[in-house]
Design brief:
The complex is a heterodimer of chains A (344) and B (301). By secondary structure, chain A is mostly helical. Chain A has 14 helices and four strands. Chain A is globular and about 55 Å long. The two termini of chain A are 36 Å apart. Chain B is mostly helical and 301 residues long. Chain B has one domain: Orthogonal Bundle (ABC transporter involved in vitamin B12 uptake, BtuC), CATH 1.10.3470. Helices cover 73% and strands 3% of the residues of chain B. In chain B, the strands form two sheets. Chain B has a two-stranded antiparallel ribbon with strand order 1-4. A two-stranded antiparallel sheet of chain B has the order 2-3. The longest helix of chain B is centred in the first third of the chain and has 31 residues, at 2-32. Classes of the chains: A mainly alpha (344), B mainly alpha (301). Chain A binds chain B through residues 73, 75, 77, 125-126, 129-133, 135-137, 139-141, 143-144, 147-148, 150-151, 217, 262, 266, 269, 273, 317-321, 323-328, 331-332, 335, and chain B through 33-35, 93-94, 97-98, 101, 103-109, 111-120, 122-123, 229, 233, 236-237, 240, 269, 271-272, 274-275, 278-279, 281-282, 285-286, 289, 299, 301.
């Protein structure tokens, strides 16, 4: 069932760019979105719902990072830091940690602007750096943020993090232990991200990003305020990460600093590279494929190897190498992603 | 005061290792303008090779006399050679095909190579820290402040730096490197084989990482598969702090970062050391992107 869903979503994403007429495309999107909403009802196992919720959160993250990396061409290697900021905002404001129990919805709304603020704080001094230096600075930022959360034990619970976060409720009805509400929320976030990113790409700001990505110097001399455009990309990208962080923390019921390391940032970059940077449907596919690989295909392959070949391997040990191979192979052979976007 | 001396010794030895790694970053960045993300993992590979060599020589603890000299020389050369070959291989497979691609493409493959190497090292020796034999005996110098291992590491780094300075500024290969760094096409026009020169630069950078890996393995008597991630980032910070592309700068930056880390650990606590180093990285890039000894170069068009 879950694979049928994944296949469906992948087919959908592949097809959307191929449809010539916008009206037809809209109909296809709606037709494909409906089963997306129904899948967890057809297959009501909690494992499926959990997987779907996680996958959607990652898709939202990848779409947010895509604005920074894919549109504006700024390689952000510390994207997980904003994810951590969103998650810790929920962890500190809606848990017994300080006895604060601010409603989930308020924090969800505030997480975007909060992460955007941090994005601008990081971006304002650093965005004039050249591409590869910027990558290293963001990487440094991505290392510092979880480390600070880990060190400020009095506020953040230190290395153990904060357990027992509030379970959100919707008009008095608690989410309970189910991942289903988070799936729908994450799906809404994905839809919002696609909507915003799609519209932004066609906007003045989006064209400024593409110009900067292709040639920053030329863009500057064409009169684009490159610093402003880059700051906007950073802020908008970060805000999605922040919102996704709140969802992630609330769903998990805890936050801890080791959930937001460099591997997470690279995982999301790998999703973009796999799908094709700057290509919305490609990014969706890339993130779905990698999430499925991590949480469904590798465990299955373990079982398959155990039953068929009688070898006990833990393929999830090879995560790092898989991301690495994806990054290298894609850059060498398919630099514009698995499904290259057609030039318009 | 004694505490200060001890931290000074720690910081200088640590800084010497960072400096050795930073030299490799700076050489590669100088010639192909690539942050060789996998460089830190080549360094880890060096410490693993050192362990293999020492084990093969039957060394399990302190060595003395001829055996000590033989062990040090063989481990240094072996590690340098293995890492140099690995670096050439990485360049050939992952960077050379992308030499004319957009700048971010080889950086992304470099991250990929780094992940692959880390995973391979983890599969080889497991995820836990591994012990390297305490090869160097332990007489103390300068009122007991410096151990022999610390002095050797520092001397090794300084000697290597001078050798590298000589290589880059006084030899034919060095001249070719500088020519390729300045303008690859013009260098080709005067008959320099850019591919060969770049490959040799990677060989040298890898060898430097191998030397650093050997030094840190023997000095700290331990290593693990992710050793190079943090050390690589800090060494890159050192290279940037000193002025990237500048050999003396990499050395200066390395010692600065090593001292910063040692004194942060001793005063505020080890868990803040990384925060301090990365804050310095961000600050340097923002305030003085060309580093302490770097010159102000305009962006290449």
């Amino acid at each position: 069932m879950i694979y049928a869903y994944a296949a469906l979503a992948i087919v959908a994403a592949v097809l959307i760019d191929r449809f010539p007429s916008p009206r037809l495309r809209r109909i296809v999107i709606v037709a494909l979105a409906i089963p997306l909403l129904l899948v967890p009802l057809i297959d009501p196992s909690e494992a499926t719902r959990n997987l779907l919720a996680d996958a959607s959160i990652y898709v939202a993250l990848a779409l947010g990072l895509n604005i920074v990396v894919g549109f504006a061409g700024l390689l952000d290697l510390g994207y997980a830091a904003f994810f951590a900021i969103g998650a810790y905002a929920y962890g500190m404001l809606a848990s017994p940690q300080f006895g604060l129990h601010i409603p989930f919805w308020v924090i969800l709304l505030l997480a975007g602007p909060l992460a955007a603020l941090f994005g601008m704080i990081l971006g304002a001094p650093t965005l004039r750096l050249r591409g590869d230096y910027l990558a290293i600075v963001t990487l440094g930022f991505g290392e510092i943020v979880p480390q600070i959360f880990q060190n400020l034990t009095a506020y953040t619970g230190g290395p153990n993090g904060i357990p027992g976060l509030d379970v959100p409720s919707f008009f008095g009805k608690s989410f309970g232990a189910s991942a289903l509400p988070f799936y729908y929320l994450a799906l809404a976030l994905v839809a919002l991200a696609i909507f915003i990113a799609g519209n932004l790409r066609a906007s003045r700001l989006g064209r400024a990003w593409l110009a900067i990505r292709d040639d920053e110097l030329a863009a500057k001399h064409a009169g684009i305020d490159t610093t402003r455009a880059k700051l906007a990309a950073f802020a908008i990208g970060a805000s999605f990460s922040g919102c996704a962080g709140v969802l992630f923390a609330a769903k998990l019921g805890l936050v801890s600093p080791d959930l937001f390391g460099f591997q997470v940032s690279v995982l999301i970059v790998s999703m973009l590279v796999l799908g094709g940077m700057g290509n919305l449907s490609g990014v969706v596919i890339g993130s779905l494929v990698l999430t499925m690989l991590n949480s469904a295909i590798l465990p299955q392959a373990n079982m398959l190897a155990a039953t068929l070949l009688h070898v006990h391997v833990d393929l999830s040990q090879y995560h790092f190498a898989i991301y690495g191979v994806i990054l290298v192979a894609m850059m060498l052979w398919r630099p514009s992603g698995l499904i290259a976007r057609r030039a318009r | 005061m004694h505490e200060f001396g001890a931290q000074l010794a720690n910081g200088l030895a640590l800084g010497a290792i960072y400096a050795l790694i930073a030299l490799g970053y700076t050489m590669v960045y100088g010639i192909v303008e690539l942050i060789n993300f996998a460089h830190g993992d080549v360094y880890t590979f060096g410490s693993f090779i050192t362990l293999v060599i020492l084990t093969a020589l039957g060394i399990t603890g302190e060595a003395h006399g001829v055996l000590l000299v033989v062990a040090v020389v063989v481990a240094l050369l072996g590690s340098a050679l293995a890492c140099g070959v690995l670096a050439i291989l990485i360049e050939r497979v992952a960077y050379r095909p992308l030499r004319n691609a957009p700048r971010l493409a080889p950086l992304i493959t470099a991250i990929g190579v780094s992940f692959i190497l880390e995973n391979a090292l983890q599969l080889w020796k497991g995820p836990a820290p591994i012990t390297v034999p305490a090869l160097i005996p332990n007489p103390r110098f300068l009122g007991g402040t410096f151990s022999l291992a610390q002095v050797s590491v520092i001397v090794l780094a300084v000697v290597t730096m001078f050798a590298l300075q000589f290589l880059v500024h006084r030899t034919r290969l060095g001249m070719q490197m500088r020519a390729v760094a300045q303008d690859r096409d013009a260098a080709a026009l005067v008959g320099i084989d850019a591919n060969r020169t770049i490959a040799l630069t990677f060989l040298i950078a890898g060898a430097l990482a191998g030397i650093a890996g050997m030094a840190s393995g023997v000095y700290y008597q331990s290593t693990w598969f992710l050793n190079g991630f943090g050390a690589g980032l800090k060494s890159f910070t050192a290279a940037v702090l000193g002025g990237i592309g500048n050999i003396a700068g990499a050395m200066l930056g390395g010692f600065c970062i090593g001292l910063l880390e040692a004194f942060t650990s001793a005063t505020i606590g080890g868990q803040w050391a990384n925060v301090a180093v990365f804050t310095v990285l961000i600050a340097v890039l923002v305030i003085r992107p060309n580093g302490l000894l770097g010159t102000n170069l305009p962006d290449k068009l």
